[in-house]
Specification:
CATH architecture of the largest domain: 2-Layer Sandwich
Structural class: alpha/beta
Number of helices: 6
Helix content: 25-40%
Shape: flat
């Protein structure tokens, strides 16, 4: 059943105002040919991510253009760059999933850059998520590289990914193409909704040996 732009917008606005992680009062929603454009401001970087996640859950959304800017409340006392850096390093040290010693954190005017290495691709995204939730962060640039702890064969990586996708009830593996070159995975094909999209993406990011992902998936 086709979802009209008006229905998409109403459902999304309702979701944004429902989500207690987000102050939706300063968010504007526009829709162009199935692409949702989010404009305005949110109080934290985490709220910006949450708004994108909520958008992806709405039926009929084909693509997302997130233009939201982070604007902390006037009453918020900004930590210094050094304080933000120290807080991020502490969060990483407390998290047993990552090796904080291999990660370098740089902060310039509340903009964070992550450098160094992790041993699996999902940890690269996990480190970014942890850093983005620290108070005072306005943006995160993720330059982490993935260096697996052992050698992997591209064909074996591709087979593991295809098998993982095939186990999912949300995705028709016949509509997905997986290509692997030196650990970098290119995903292409079509999925019926964002739930299937994330099931496919997760199958790739959690597979051992994946060092990078080029995402060409299309939500129909």
């Amino acid at each position: 059943m086709t979802t009209t732009n008006e229905e998409i917008k109403k459902n999304l606005v309702d979701a944004l105002y429902w989500d207690s992680r987000i102050d939706a009062s300063q968010i504007e929603v526009y829709i162009e040919n199935g692409t949702v454009i989010l404009e305005g401001t949110v109080p934290t970087y985490g709220a910006r991510k949450a708004a994108q996640q909520d958008t992806a859950e709405i039926a009929g959304v084909k693509a997302i253009d997130n233009r939201l800017r982070v604007k902390y409340p006037n009453t918020f006392t900004f930590p210094t760059d050094e304080e933000i850096k120290a807080n991020i390093k502490n969060v990483l040290l407390w998290n047993q999933q990552v090796n904080a010693e291999d990660i370098k954190v740089k902060v310039n005017n509340s903009f964070v850059t992550l450098e160094g290495s992790v041993d699996t691709f999902w940890k690269k995204l996990r480190v970014e998520s942890l850093a983005s939730d620290v108070n005072g962060v306005l943006n995160v640039t993720n330059k982490l590289t993935v260096v697996p702890g052992k050698d992997f064969v591209d064909e074996a990586i591709a087979k593991d990914i295809v098998n993982a996708i095939d186990r999912s009830l949300k995705v028709n593996v016949d509509n997905i193409d997986i290509r692997v070159e030196k650990g970098k995975v290119t995903i292409s094909g079509t999925v019926p909704n964002w739930s299937a999209y994330w099931a496919t993406y997760d199958a790739v990011q959690y597979t051992a040996g994946v060092t990078d992902i080029e995402d060409r998936l299309v939500v129909e």
